[in-house]
Amino acid sequence: MQMEKSLELPQDIVRRIFAILEVxxxxxxxxxxxxWRAAYTNLCSTGSYRLQQTPCLLYTSESAGTRTAGLYSLxxxxxxxxxxxxxxxxxxxxxxxxxxxxxxxxxxxxxxxxNPITGNQIALPSVTTIEQVKPIFDDxxxxxxxxxxxxxxxxxxxxxxxxxxxxxLRESLFYKAFLSSDPCSGDYFVxxxxxxRSQLSFARAGDAKWTWLPPNSEYEDCLFKGGLLYASTxxxxxxxxxxxxxxxxPKIFLDKVKDIYFERIxxxxxSCGELLQIWRSDVPPQxxxxxxxxxxxxxxxxxxxxxxxxxxxxxxxVDSTSKKLMEMISLGQNVLFLGHNQSLCLRAEEYPQLxxxxxxxxxxxxxxxxxxxxNRRDIGIFDLESNSSEEIVSPQLWSNWPTPxxxxxxxxxxx
Length: 415
Prior knowledge:
It comes from Urochloa decumbens. Pfam families: Beta-prop_KIB1-4, F-box-like. The chain is mostly beta strands. The protein contains 6 helices and 28 strands. The protein has helices at residues 2-7, 11-18, 23-29, 34-46, 169-173, 366-371, and strands at 56-59, 68-73, 78-83, 93-98, 101-105, 111-114, 121-123, 133-137, 143-148, 162-165, 174-179, 189-194, 199-204, 211-212, 219-225, 228-233, 238-241, 251-254, 264-269, 275-283, 309-319, 324-328, 334-338, 344-347, 358-361, 380-383, 388-390, 405-407. The strands form 7 sheets. The protein has a 5-stranded mixed β-sheet, with no helix packed on it. Helix 2 (11-18) crosses helix 4. The longest helix is centred in the N-terminal third of the chain and has 13 residues, at 34-46. The chain is globular and about 70 Å long.
């Protein structure tokens, strides 16, 4: 009887209730009856659902099939299975996650952005329009290989271009990708960090080709803030770009802060609006049979035992006046999410299931990910007060490849 009464609630009241739900609950509620389905559809088409969605971990599940992905909800501590459009999820590389969309590279090294919640998919400009890539055609005028040139905006690394099979190019070319906004808004940019030497290229919604941004390289992370692209390099420089005002030229927002880099660097906007720079260290654990006298040598890349563990995370505030870094001893009530996703800083008080002053992290080391696809992924929660980490769930639910990423569920559908 209670269910019958609830089904008769006016649509505006149903929508107001639905608007405060986490996406897993929202999707379930939308499947109850036609009236609730109508409220769910209305919220998803207008984007009026709860905006403070708790990040989830998107991963693949080998037992569930090639077209599916797993979604682990931190809010519910529960795993779900999603069905995604072709090409099969297991055949893709994941190189980014922003605004509820992932950026993937298929077996032809072509890029798509996909919303795992709605199944919406958008093809990006062809990989052959990236500056360093040229198609090679067979006798039937079909692309059979790619020619890859090893030059940056400043110098040529190798004089002779390399030839890659269609699926092989993505492992050498793509590093990380970012969106400026939700593609459902209609106007957005996609930015690629790609090789050689981690350069930048971008495309605007509707573009037929990628636009290259020479001459700088060695970029690590990107962030859109105030209509500008902020791009961090491996030595801590931050460059800004106005992608909507050609010709696009870089401006230095922060000079280099280090000469030698061991850490990976992230740029994130704090919940108060300030810019943060994060340094993350992860090293392979030392084997018992390793001689300490050989500790300065390059570690042997043994696929059976080579794993990475996050050992330190340092947080710095970028002082907008002095243009210098100020190390922070605590995030306070803030929470960070780092990985092959847009770097995030959230207020723990708005997300009851998250731990304040902690960093939720996944693997995003380029060489480790592409060279050791079958190895255990470094995924966990790092406590900045104790400098220790713990697993999110044990044993881990996620498979090793494609690399798991953080995703803020986005149920809004393309119009």
